[in-house]
Every structure is written in C-alpha cells, then in structure tokens.
Amino acid sequence: MMLKMEGVHAHYGHIHALRGIDVEVQVGEIVTLIGANGAGKSTLMMSLFGNPKASAGRIVFDGEDITRVHTHEIARRGIALVPEGRRIFPRMTVIENLQMGTAHADPANYAADTARVFAMFPILQERQAQRAGTLSGGEQQMLAIGRALMSRPKLLLLDEPSLGLAPIYIRKIFQIVRELNRDHGMTILLVEQNANQALRVADRGYVLQHGEITLAGTGAELLASPEVRAAYLEGGHA
Amino acid sequence: MSAVVFARHAMTPAERLRDAGWVAFVGLILGIPLVGLTTVDVGGRLGVETRFGLLAAAVAAVFAGRLLLRWAIDQARNRKQERDRASTATAADRAHGAQRVVNVLGWVALGASIALPIVFSDNRYVVDTATTVLIYVMLGWGLNVVVGLAGLLDLGYVAFYAVGAYSYALLSTQFGWSFWEALPVSGALAASFGILLGYPILRLRGDYLAIVTLGFGEIIRIILVNWTEFSNGPNGISSIPRPSFFGLDFTRSAPEGGQTFAGFFGLEFSPMHRLIFLYYLILVLALLTHAFVSRLRKLPVGRAWEALREDEIACQAMGMNTTNIKLSAFAIGAMLGGFAGVFFAARQGFISPESFTFTESAIILAIVVLGGMGSQMGVVLAATLLVLIPEFGRNFAEYRMLLFGLAMVLIMVWRPGGLLSHREPTVHLNASGKTAATKEAAR
Ligand SMILES: Nc1ncnc2c1ncn2[C@@H]1O[C@H](COP(=O)(O)OP(=O)(O)OP(=O)(O)O)[C@@H](O)[C@H]1O
Ligand SMILES: [Mg+2]
Question: Where is the ABC transporter domain (chain A) (predicted)?
Fold first, then answer.
C-alpha cells in the first residue's frame, strides 16, 4: 500500500471542504480523482501535504502516519505535487526551476535526473536557459512535471495537468502519464476534469462530490457507470 | 506562426493635430487667467492688463510640445514592441550583452570608488557625500535580500538600522566596547530583531506584510523616543567613540599610552584622515556585504528566497521549509542593516531617533525598487542617484524635494522594471551545452 486516507476531514475556516475521505493507492497504480469544480479535489491533494491539515482522520503514506507531519517534511518522504495551474517559478530559468525540484534531494543525482527529465521532455533541454515564464502553457506544464520528477518521488500527484491545454498537448500529457507509470513504475494520483481520458489511463478511480467520495471503481467500471456518464462524460467533457 | 498584427502606436497626422489642438485649447482656457491677464499698478489703483501676445506664444508652445511629446512616446512604444517581438534566441543574447555591460559597469564603479578619496583627498564634501552613498548602497543591498530576493515587502527596514546604531552607541558609551567588538554583536542583535519581526508575520503577504512591518519600524522609533532611561529619548546619544585604525586614533594628540594615526605614519595631522578612513571602512563593509549576498544567491538558501518570491505554494510542494526561508531572509537582511547602523553611529558620533524615521525606510525601499528588485548593481546606481539628486538640488532650495519626486517618477516611467531589471541566472550553460552552477560570484 502506497497511500491510505481514512475518514479524512479538512476545513478552510468554516468551510468544510473534505467530509470523511477514504482513498487508497497501491504501489504502481494510476488512480484518478474526478469531480465537479469545487468538489474538493485540489483540497484533497493539498491535505496530503498538510496544507490544510486534516482536521480528523488519518493519512498513511508508505507505512508511516503523515497526518501531523510538517508540510516541508512530507515532500521529503517521497510525495511530489504538480500543483493546479503549474506554479512554475516564472522569473527563473528552466534549468533553475528543475534545480528547485531537488531542494531536498541528493545532489549526487542531479546530473542523472536532469538528463532523465530532458530525455522525457526534449523541448525543456532546448529551452533550458529561457525564463520559465516565457514558455508556452504546454511547455510550462512539462516543466512542472519535470520539476516534480527531479526529487525521485515514490508518489506523483498531478492536479489537472491538462488544464488550459490544446488537444494535442493534452494527448501528450496523458501519454507521459502512461509512460511514467509503465516505464518508470511511477505511482500516480491524477486529478482531472477530462474524465474520459483520465478514466481510460487509470487503473482505478474515485468520484468526489461536495467533499465526499460518492463512487469508486476501476477505470472501466466508472467509464461505464450511468452516473459518471451523465455527470462527467456527456456534458461536453469528452 | 500565426499572423498576429501588433497594433502600432501610430496616429495619422490629422489625429495628431487634433490631439495637440485639444491640449492647446485646454492650455488656452487655463492660460487666460494665468498668463493672459495680469494686474498692474495704475497710479495706486489695481488695474488689469492683457498680455495676449504672451498667451498666444504660450499656447503655441503647448501645441508644439504636445505634438513632440506624443511623437516621442509613440516612438518609444514602437521600439519597445519591436524589441519584445524579437525571437527568444536574440533575447538570450541581449540578456547576455546586458550582463556584460553591467559587469563592466561594476568594475568601473569599483575602480572609481577606490580612487575617489585619493583624487579628492582634500575635498571634505565629496568624501562625505560618497560615504553617505555607500551607507545607502549597503542598506539597499541588505533590504534587497528581503524585498528583491525573497519578495517580502518590508516598510520598516529602518528599525534594524536603528537597532545596529543604538547597539553600538550604548555598548561603546556604557561599556567601553570598541567598534570592532561591537560590530558582530550589534549585527547579531539586529538579526534577532529580524527573527522577532519575522515570526508574527510568517503568514502575511503583500499589503498586510507591508502594514505590519511599517508598524514595527514605528514601534522601534517610538520606544527610542520614549524610553528615556535606556536611549536618552529624543536627545539621543552623543560622544560615540570613532573607530580606530588598528588601535591608532585619528585625533590631534595621542591618548596616554596610545598613538595617533598621523603620528605613527609620520604624517601631519589632518581631519581628512579620519574621513577617508571612514570612507574606506564603509567601502570594505559594503563590498563584503556584496560578496556575501552574491554568494548566498548561488547557494540553496538564496535560490529558495527567489523561489519563495515567485510562488510560495510551489515552494511547499518542493519540500522547502518556507518558515525557515522567510526567517533567514529577515534575519540576514536585518543583520546587514544592523552593520550599516553601527557604521552610521560611529561616523556621526551622535544619533537620535530622528535619524530613523519612516522616510528613511521609504528611501531605502525606493533604492531597491528603482534599482530593479534583486539587482545588486541597480542598487548602486539608484543609491547614487537618490543621494546625489537632493545634493544637486540644493541650488533649487524649496523645490528640492519636488525635483527628487519628479526624478523618481521619470525613472519609473522610463524603466518600469527598475534601472537594471535584468536578472542574472545562477546556473549557466557551458560550451558543451551541459549545465553548471557558476563557481565564481558574478558582479
Ligand atoms: N484557500 C482556501 N480558502 C478557503 N476556501 C477554499 C480554499 N481553497 C479551496 N476552498 C474551497 O474549498 C472547496 C473545494 O475547493 P477545491 O479547490 O478543492 O475544488 P476542486 O475540486 O479542486 O475544484 P476545481 O476543479 O475547480 O479545481 C471550494 O468550495 C473552495 O471554495
Ligand atoms: Mg482544483
């Protein structure tokens, strides 16, 4: 078991954003989380990072309880987040951005890790001296993923990686997700609005609604489920 | 490439004439009472005289001026657009070129600042003003860590300057500490105040941070004014000992058992010796500050400051401890401000809370912003300008501050990103295309 959330609640002041979440991620799996805007998907990911801290329930990562661990400690234990909206460091160059991803990693791995990221995203190598803020949206997303991979995480969290991208880039991003999982054995938790494609790459999926998990199953099961079809697939999301 | 059409800032001649005509019309309306009519003394009575010739000239000048100004603005905009459109490759080249110019400028400035007291060895005013410039350079570099690198808007920086100055003043007058003994202790004290301020405001950003730091600066000053037993209140502290040159004093006659600087080197006594010594002292302190900050910028802590400025959430996701990053920025910025304060107290020989008002914070912040947030060389240029403009402005008496404000506005219009807004990356590409962290501190 890589990750287990048991009855997790989270609050932003008075807003009760997560109401008893149970989610499991096994080693080597791609798990996707779908849900409407404001359902609490980003909150769920951030609560894994302790920002906001879970107000009740338990989060176990890699056999250790991380519910009360400091935010900056959690990344060190092997979780990397590609946050919603990329959040690269715009005034820093591409290579500096990648370097920031290794803030807590062994410097000895730096060269090998950069090479690995460049092999995965050749465009980043071409643009390595460019200011990250001047990259295109798709390139920025690749940079955000590359930066997260620099720390050699055990679990990769992707929050809406296809947000605002053209179809060709979306396809590319999903292809990367698949490759990371298949070729590098990366365990991935993926949040997506793009339910159709997300469920296709995922081993399993959860549907989140108003801070609660309302449906769970394999990707194929959810794709076939009438509720999911009605709410997330046929409304133009496909 | 899509065929994006960039709107050129070009007006037809008719539009230009109409635009200028409108402005001239406004000028005419305003000008009738201001220029067109004037009061004269007609045999003891007040009479009105018309000056329509002058008014016509003024309106014509406004018309021509407006035409010219519009044209100049459009030219500038178009040039800028042209530049922005240039490909990224040339952008990188240009950035490289800009960096070279800055480097050369840095060496020239260094050479000039070393030579200055030799050239002006008997000009008290020049050496004094240059010393003031260097104090502001040092303060600017200190605040640059907090505002320019870590992106934390601090409006109360003068508080740390005050802590440094008062630490030295009290340690030396009450306990007989020498300058060199007091310097590190005062710096450490200022750093602790930095952390003290840092803690409560860890969660604040932007405007809120600015307000709280502003309050902090005022609190320190008000304590200094009111806690008379401690700080001697508004009267300040006087007879603060001057630093000595390895134990040699800069006095006319030697203290018992000691020697004077002039006596030791067999020179004739001159009050300029001390001024020049003070000048070189602050020059060395400033250069050490520069080396220290440039070095830090290339270390993980410095890069973490910059990352924090860019995006706090991303920093957390990268496993950075944002609490420590912020506190270290505050502490180091405060320490550097404290050092500058020690020097200030030692140079003046007298300090009072009046030297540490909000205006001071504002000027230091202006130096950082005008210099181009984060740029070390920019701080030097801005500090020089901001100290020299009021000096030159002395001829303009009461218009001095007006001139000062105008200059600041013009700089920001001309260079919205600050004088030197180019940010030098801390990681460079070497010839083989591989990356390497720079070893030497770039200037
Ligand atoms: N920092 C915050 N402070 C207060 N409320 C917040 C904060 N972040 C999120 N919320 C609230 O929590 C709820 C869940 O938000 P969340 O960002 O997790 O939604 P989401 O599922 O990621 O939506 P989207 O698909 O639009 O990204 C929303 O009602 C939102 O308004
Ligand atoms: Mg979200």
Answer: 3-235
